[in-house]
Amino acid sequence: MISFNDVTPVGYAQYVEIDLGNARMIVMSGQVAIDTEGNIIGKDDFEQQAEFIFSSIKKIVEKAGGSIDNIIKLNNYLIDISNLPLFKKVRDKYVNTSHPPASTTVEVSSFIREDLLLEIEAMAIINKN
Q1: Is 44 in contact with 37 (CB distance < 8 Å)?
Q2: Relative to the CA of 52, which of 23, 113, 115, 122 has its CA 20 to 30 Å away?
Q3: How many domains does the chain have?
Q4: pLDDT tens for residues 38-94?
Q5: Which pTM does this prediction carry?
Q6: Which range marks the domain in which residue 123 is found?
Q7: How far is the C-alpha of 14 from the C-alpha of 31, rounded, in Å?
């Protein structure tokens, strides 16, 4: 069974929960540095955008009853791959670096808004207690 979060963006869900029996999988849509009023967070500031996004991912997984340690997969999309060292610096403040999630990082040409510098999709598995 799939259940959808209570946030209602137009045309998609921020995340869905999939019941796996003894656990739940949380599949998150791509997270970007846009606040609830539609403003870009950290215009021209890669590190600030990355911090905002990882903070959003952390909030989503916690809302679903887990922790950032439950993240099993990250798909990272960067406008400029030369920001990879800065990306890793921010990411490593959030993920369990001794047991990191699987990860894919690619450089892309653009996003839905031109001031966005990165987008991150995430998946988590949360055991039921």
Answers
A1: no
A2: 23
A3: 1
A4: 899 999 999 999 999 999 999 999 999 999 999 999 999 999 999 999 999 999 999
A5: 0.90
A6: 2-127
A7: 8
